[in-house]
Each structure stands twice: as C-alpha cells, then as structure tokens.
Amino acid sequence: MTASPLPVEPFDLVIFGGTGDLAVRKLLPALYHRYVDGQIPETSRVIGIAREGLDDEGYRAHARKALQENGGDKSKVDDFLKLVHYRSLDARKDEGWDDFAALIGGQPDHVRVFYLSTSPDLFVDICNRLGAYELNKGKARVVLEKPIGRDLKSANQINDAVGRVFDESQTFRIDHYLGKETVQNLLALRFGNILFEPLWNAEHIDHVQITVAETLGVGQRAGYYDHAGALRDMVQNHILQLLCMVAMEPPSSLSPDAVRDEKLKVLRSLKPIDESNSAQLTVRGQYRAGAAEGQSVPGYLDELKDHKSHTETFVAVKAEIANWRWAGVPFYLRTGKRLPERVSEIVVVFKPVPHSIFDPSAGVLAQNRLVLRLQPDENIKLWVTIKHPGPGGLRLRHVSLDMSFAEAFGVQQPDAYERLILDVVRGNPTLFMRRDEVEAAWHWADPILGAWADSGEAPRPYTSGTWGPSAAVALIERDGRTWNEDSE
Ligand code: NAP
Predict the structure, then answer these.
(1) 191 and 338 co-located in one domain
(2) Which pLDDT value is given to residue 2?
(3) Whole domain around residue 363: which residue ranges?
(4) 126, 145, 164 - which closes a domain
(5) Considering the chain, what is the average pLDDT of its residues?
(6) Given its phi and psi angles, is residue 427 left (phi above 0), alpha (psi -120 to 50 degrees) or beta?
(7) Based on CB atoms within 10 Å of each CB, which residue in 271, 321, 378, 398 is the most buried?
C-alpha cells in the first residue's frame, strides 16, 4: 500500500503566461493531479495571467479542454477549476495591476508563487511591478523558467534585476529534468546503498554518456530556437545538471545548500573548452531534410526560411571533470533534434573485469552498465553478466536488472512539474538552480560558443532521422567506445 501524499499549506499560484503552451500542457495538468491526490487545499487559488481578454469562465473553458484531453475526470476537473481564476494584464503596462494586486493582497497569509512562464525578456518588468506593489513580501516566491539568458552577461542582467526584488531564497530557477523520478532515484541509488559509491570513480568507471534526443524538429519555434541552438537550449542547463547529479561528491545532507554546493563544485571543475580544443572536443550539426517517424520532413533552414543560419540543432561534447574522482573519465554529452528516437538517458559504463577466466567460446564479456532512462518512460537498468541457464555448458549472457520498481509499488510516475511546483510552495529549493550554478554553467558554455562563432564554420549537416553528423560517432569511437544503442 502506498501512503497518501501530505497536503501543502494554502497558496496563491500566479502563472504569468497562463494561456501559453507550457502553462496549458504542463503546469495546469500538474496542479490538477496534485489536487486530485488531495495535496492542494480548497482555499488555494491558481491565477492565469496573459494579455488575451478572457474572464474567469473563458479561462476555465480553455483549461477544462486541456485537462480533459489529458485524461482528467470531468467532475474532478470541474472541482479543480473552482480554484482557477484569470486576469488580463500586459506585463509591460500599468493598466490592470491595481486590480491584480488587490486580488493577491487579499490573502496575505497565503504562500504566493509567481511563476514566470513567459519569454525571459518580460522577467524584469514583471518583477519590478511585483516589487512596486510589495507583492514580494511575506511568503512570496518567484519561479523562473529557462532560458535564463543566452550567455553569462545576459544571465547576470536577469539575475541582478530579479535579485533587486526577490532574495535568492525566494528565487526558484526551474530545471524540470531535476524533478524527474529517475533523477531522485539516482540520489537514492548512489547514497542509499553501499554498493555503488565505492565503485563510483575513475578507478572503476570507464566513461559516462548523457543523451537527450528528440525526433521533433523546431517547427513553429524556429524563430526562438535560432537565437538559442542546442548548446544553450539543452546542454548549458539540463545536461549539465544531470552531469552534476552523476558526478557530485556525497553531500553531507539533502539540505538545499549541501546539494547545490556539491553541484557547483562539479561545474567549476569542468575542463575549459575553447578555441584551442573545441574542434577536437565538440561536434555541431544542423538537420537537413529526411524522414521522421515514417514521414518525410523538411530541413532546418527550410523551416527557418533563412539559408544562412549557423545555429546548431545537434551537439556532441566530450567533457572532462578535473578532480580526483573523475580525472581521465570522459563524459560524452549529446543532444539533437530530428534524431531517430525520442530518448533521454544517462549511461554509466564500468571498466571491464581485469582478467577473464572464461573461454572465448563462452561469449563476449561485456562491461557493466547502469542505464538511467528519463524519457520516454522512466526506468533504471543495471546490465550484468550471468550464465545462460541450463545444462548447455558455461555460456555468458548480458542481461538487465530492472531497478525502477514503479510497477512493483503500483505507483504512477508523476510528471516532474508536479513535484517541483509543490517544492516551490513548500519553499524547498534543493531541486532548483542557485544563481552561482547558472553562472558556472555559462562560464563553461560561453567559450565554446565563442570558439564556434570565431571559427566562422557552419555546423555539419545531418539527415533528419539519423544520429547526427558522422563526426559525432567518430568523437566517441576514436576513444575505442560507442554510443549506447540498447533501446530496451
Ligand atoms: P508561449 O506559448 O509563447 O506563451 C507565452 C505566454 O505569455 C502566453 O500566455 C502569452 O499570452 C503571454 N504573454 C506574452 N506577452 C505577454 C505580456 N506582455 N504580458 C503578459 N503576458 C504575456 O510560450 P511557452 O512555450 O508557454 O513558454 C513560456 C516560457 O517557458 C518560455 O520562456 C519558454 O522558453 C519556457 N519553456 C517552455 C517549455 C515548453 O514546453 N513550452 C519548456 C521549457 C521552458 P498573450 O499573448 O495573450 O499575452
């Protein structure tokens, strides 16, 4: 039997960008699921904000459609929607803010969460107005969606401006990868067992791979994406955060700063990649026309309608962490659009046994691998060598032990946003990025972007539906290793 989750205290959650894709597809469903599980008190309120001239009922109709399409039960959706309100506001204009401030100010004892699910260029305006109306006081918190800037300088500008209104302890920079069950499970596996930690170092780990692959292209988001690219969109935030969870030293506790201090040390230990070595350690790609899920699809430049763009839709990086634990262990990172499969995974590949006692006819002695799958389904598998059962002699087989146990416990995997939104209400920032982490990540990423820009070279083309440019395969194969290909 599973224990019922504990309710949080009553809150007002304001979603700036309440009609946007993220709010409708992720945030409202996450809140609905936590409501159905009894974690959200009935006196809480969810207030959507956007410029569109809707009233409460208009917004609820919008939300009802999305929630029911998402499998929500009609009567429970209707109950949840009693908590949902809407205000039409332009974040850049004064009109409507008095009314909004009165609405929020009416519940001074509530936790107030301001979720900025808008383009980052509105963050400063929104925070300044929240400050002017003193809505930043008491139990107020602000949630910042990625991207936080496009380089260290612009990230600092945003963080400085937000920091003038909200303390660091009130600021929650969300990276939804950290809210995934598998990432929590990585902490439990590493620090809740004696088995792994003694092996978790350069002596026993050969290398680590982190892949975030998407089958989709940029589609309607080409305009936004062209200013970002794969390194800014995926590597600087999500992939580096996953790398930190794999590589950090055991924190002294799970307190927010203990965990984030250890992650910061990893980010600061990343070996610099700049114009002197980026050609050896990074591969940039851009997709051309090809096929995705059996359909022919256009190339990036055709979608963008600009044939000069050098923005990368694929990147592979060989990263290294310069400290005692990880010296000499490569972390191969790759992400891309229009790849053959949608998959996000961390693969920890252990070293081979030092000496084989088996006859070659017994089969290949494969290396142990721990595969943490974050998408499309979350699971953890440990690959081990066993003897093939039966009397047919000693034949070796490589099999995977399923270590995720969600089915065994009869638990449905919650979406990462469900956990993270309630952590914000509880005021627990453990799974959110501290300002110095964001800065350290940009400090590593900026010279790579600079080296690419200075080279003047275009990204390497790859056909949609393939695993990126052949140079990305060469990046790992010239070290005598291969990208993980088990799709189990
Ligand atoms: P979106 O669909 O374009 O939605 C933007 C929202 O902001 C809309 O509700 C829009 O409504 C509102 N808005 C725009 N200008 C405004 C203004 N001046 N005042 C008040 N509201 C305004 O964007 P999204 O995809 O939801 O993304 C939101 C943010 O989350 C972005 O920073 C994005 O990078 C980030 N993010 C998104 C996803 C995702 O899966 N979508 C994932 C990770 C991060 P009106 O036009 O009616 O004002």
Answers:
(1) yes
(2) 56
(3) 178-477
(4) 145
(5) 94
(6) left
(7) 321
Ligand 1 atom closest to 120 (CA)? 32
Same domain, 285 and 428: yes
pLDDT digits (tens, 9 = 90+) for 87-115: 999 999 999 999 999 999 878 789 999 99
| 320 DSSP 8-state letter | -
Active site residue 110: no
Best of 15, 24, 26, 51 for a ligand 1 pocket test (most atoms within 8 Å of beta carbon): 51
| Structural domain contains residue 54 | yes
**CATH number of the domain that residue 451 is part of:** 3.30.360.10
Strand pairing category for 314-319 and 331-336:
antiparallel
Of 121, 145, 169, which residue is a domain's last?
A: 145
Say how far apart CA 306 and CA 302 lie, in whole Å: 7
Strands 282-288, 460-463: pairing kind: parallel
Cα(117) to centroid(ligand 1), Å: 5
pTM over 0.90: yes
Share of the chain above pLDDT 70, in %: 98
Answer for the pair 345, 372: CB distance below 8 angstroms, yes or no. yes
Domain count, the chain: 2
The atom of ligand 1 lying closest to the CA of 116 is 29
> Residues lining ligand 1, judged by CB closer than 6 Å?
16-23, 49-52, 89-92, 117-120, 122, 145-147
Which entry of 62, 227, 238, 443 is annotated as an active-site residue? Answer: 238
Is a pLDDT exceeding 80 seen at residue 404? no
Residue 287 has pLDDT above 70, yes or no: yes
Residue 110's domain is classified under what CATH number?
Answer: 3.40.50.720
Is residue 488 pLDDT above 80, yes or no?
Answer: no
